[in-house]
Automatic annotation (TrEMBL):
Ligand binding (Fe cation): 88, 130, 134
This protein's record includes keyword Metal-binding: yes
Cofactor binding notes: Binds 1 Fe(2+) ion.
Functional summary from the UniProt entry: Removes the formyl group from the N-terminal Met of newly synthesized proteins. Requires at least a dipeptide for an efficient rate of reaction. N-terminal L-methionine is a prerequisite for activity but the enzyme has broad specificity at other positions.
Active-site residues per Swiss-Prot or TrEMBL entry: 131
The entry's keywords: Hydrolase, Iron, Metal-binding, Protein biosynthesis
Assigned protein family: Belongs to the polypeptide deformylase family.
Gene Ontology MF terms: metal ion binding; peptide deformylase activity
Cofactor: Fe(2+)
Species whose genome carries this gene: Bifidobacterium olomucense
Catalytic reaction(s) noted: N-terminal N-formyl-L-methionyl-[peptide] + H2O = N-terminal L-methionyl-[peptide] + formate
InterPro entries noted in UniProt: Peptide_deformylase, Peptide_deformylase_sf
Gene assigned in the entry: def
EC number, UniProt record: 3.5.1.88
Entry protein name: Peptide deformylase
Length: 159
């Protein structure tokens, strides 16, 4: 197990859709261990594999004291709406109001091939959508309204 370095924008791994995990190998087990250890830090709600440089469909989460992971997540359902502050470990120090569905449900598997269903509203719903976006090669800045996105990109350039 290791705490891994977080990749930040504009690292191309963050813009590359991740590959499905086809076999549970020792490397996949180590990846899950690293995801769990790296997300286990105050203020971290979720972490996708590509954020630590691995282009596989996996993420870990740390919501309200519950830490876990899911492999090959598929965002199955969203509904409602929330509009609130969102940040990202790969876009350090920037928080912008982002529109998301309030409720989200994700289905995937665990390391034993058992089905995993994660669902929730509020922060959990936001995290599920945020991490699935990462695995599809998107960062939350892509979801900002035009003026906010322009401001965020300007702020990033001026760092």
């Amino acid at each position: 197990m290791a705490i891994r370095e977080i990749r930040v924008v504009p690292d191309p791994v963050l813009r590359t859709p991740c590959d499905e995990i086809r076999e549970i190998t020792p490397a996949v087990r180590r990846l899950v261990d690293d995801l769990l250890e790296t997300v286990d830090d105050p203020g971290r709600a979720g972490l996708s594999a590509n954020q630590i440089g691995v282009s596989l469909r996996a993420f870990s989460y740390n919501i309200e004291g519950k830490i876990g992971y899911v492999l090959n997540p598929v965002l199955e359902e969203t509904r409602g709406e929330q509009y609130g502050d969102e940040g990202c470990l790969s876009v350090p120090g920037l928080w912008y109001k982002t529109r998301r569905a309030d409720y989200a449900r994700v289905r995937g598997i665990d390391l034993d091939g058992n089905e995993v269903v994660l669902e929730g509203t509020g922060l959990m719903g936001r995290m599920l959508q945020h991490e699935c976006d990462h695995l599809d090669g998107h960062v939350y800045l892509d979801r900002l309204e035009k003026e906010e996105r322009r401001a965020a990109l300007k702020q990033m350039r001026n760092r």
